[in-house]
């Protein structure tokens, strides 16, 4: 990390280097190399970009150094490395007149709206049709004298093909669609049957009543549990995780593919897996009544939720039942439709489920007592028809079974992390820093103005605040703002704790099918019992920082991809509901308008001109309070207010929805 004194010195010099982030309107900011504080970014006017594109690594001449009143500004003098070498977009043919005038046959409508220059095609690939989604290699970058040119390298899909819109996003975000032939061959070569050699040195948990609990459509079942009450009143919780590391060896073709992807990507209509389906949905999936290799973390937990004893070891299990959240919730909740039938159908695990619910309640109480910060916000499931068009958006709330499994996975992750810490062995950790200072200070002001107490970022203060706003009109807006004060959880070779979980030790152990860091943790759990030499520890100390950074970067790419697809499909859904009226909650107020969230999780923007107070007047924006006030009526718009809206427009490609305010009689 750059020291503040060094950064101040650098920004007061005439030159700096960093990554350029470009706004669709043309201006942008350069984030200096090695810096973490965005307040030290350098503003670049739209006429000072030297045609740099979003993500380019550039050299900047600092014209106005950072001061107390304003940030630094400058002009780009050199483009050191291009971020965009290949891209994805929709082919648009030019008219005959344009062809004669410009000398090009077509242009590419890019998915990335931060690239504002028109990308021209001299000669389209044979077979390319209007509105096909294509891959393009950049052959010439724009300058004062040259146009932005590219060459079509592949046809990703033809107009009208089901799922092409989502495929375009995946390709634009460089999410790999195919595995290498070597990786597929390696996966196919594994035997379907376990051998005696496979079981050597492993604990046999086949006699335990184990079960998986997942969604109805899940196919990569990588975790199973067993839970029982012990004679001493304690609980035994066994978390059994598919032993992917048995198949995916360090440096193998499969490992190279897994490392490159680092995570599976889950979008509306598909999963892009980290590993081939032969592993993710078969050999490493803990399918019912099949013997599978696992790594197990078996914990003895007392009545206060404390782990008093544990054992982490290679193992094998035979899953008793493949359970779904729906069926487990039916078993748990008396009076729910299907309760008695579920108990009869899964009679072997009734006692275990009862013990699991009791343990879950204890663990939830323990985490609440220590200050865990939890956002219990609903997710949306977007239902598509056979043509890929969204026809319904279902709000999904987490019920007891979902929370219970999460609770048990957290317990295993903490226990494994503690084991590495106690033994002082190098590993990966999942860490989460304290809230962002400026954003949190702003939230404290907003909370006070709304009449709530938020005295600090301590776990006690934040949880008191969360309890205080619960059930009020401000809950959605202030919870939204609180979430946006939070730092991003990342992977690290250093255990710097997890703020959100209020956990001193935390790693990711429970999902090696879909997360590369978990796979690395499994490898280390296999390795250290037989080799914890200084040489081995030093080797991993050198390797882990790059693995952590790459995994964090790829996770960020996956999250952005999933959000883009989600926004696109929600906007597409709203195109069928233009003119309809809804009631929503204002979640954010900006100088250009207010954002409103509907109950179905869709969020839209009411621009200032579409805010109607009931009289003709100007609205005044207050940056300090983030509010609009009508100059005549005194009408105030602020986060947390309920507001009635009409859907004005929706842009599928941009993933945006526009509302207007409806004046209630």
Explain what the structure shows.
The chain is α+β, with helices and mostly antiparallel strands and 665 residues long. It has 16 helices and 31 strands. The mean pLDDT is 91. The termini are far apart.
Helices, strands, pairings?
Layout: H1 4-11, E1 15-22, E2 28-32, E3 42-44, E4 57-64, E5 72-81, E6 86-93, H2 96-102, E7 106-110, E8 119-121, E9 133-140, E10 148-157, H3 164-172, H4 181-188, H5 196-199, E11 203-204, E12 211-214, E13 223-229, E14 235-242, H6 253-261, E15 265-267, E16 270-272, H7 277-283, E17 291-301, E18 307-318, E19 321-324, H8 325-332, H9 339-345, H10 350-370, E20 379-384, E21 390-396, H11 400-423, E22 429-431, H12 437-449, H13 459-469, H14 475-483, E23 490-492, H15 516-527, H16 534-574, E24 581-590, E25 593-598, E26 603-607, E27 619-622, E28 627-630, E29 636-637, E30 642-651, E31 656-661
Parallel strand pairs: 3-5, 8-10, 11-18, 12-19, 26-31
Antiparallel strand pairs: 1-2, 1-4, 2-3, 4-5, 6-7, 6-9, 7-8, 9-10, 13-14, 14-17, 15-16, 17-18, 20-21, 22-23, 24-25, 24-30, 25-26, 27-28, 28-29, 30-31
Helix pairs in contact: 4-6, 8-9, 10-11
Intertermini distance: 58 Å
Helix fraction by DSSP (H/I, runs of at least 4): 25-40%
Q: What is the count of helical runs? A: 16
- Estimated share of beta-strand residues: 25-35%
Structural class by SSE content:
alpha+beta
Q: How many distinct beta strands?
A: 31
Low-confidence stretches: none
Oligomeric grouping of the chains: single chain
Give the strand line-up of the largest sheet.
1-2-3-5-4
What do the pLDDT scores average to?
91
User: What's the story with the biggest beta sheet?
Assistant: 5 strands, mixed, barrel
Rg from alpha-carbon coordinates? 27 Å
The global form is: globular
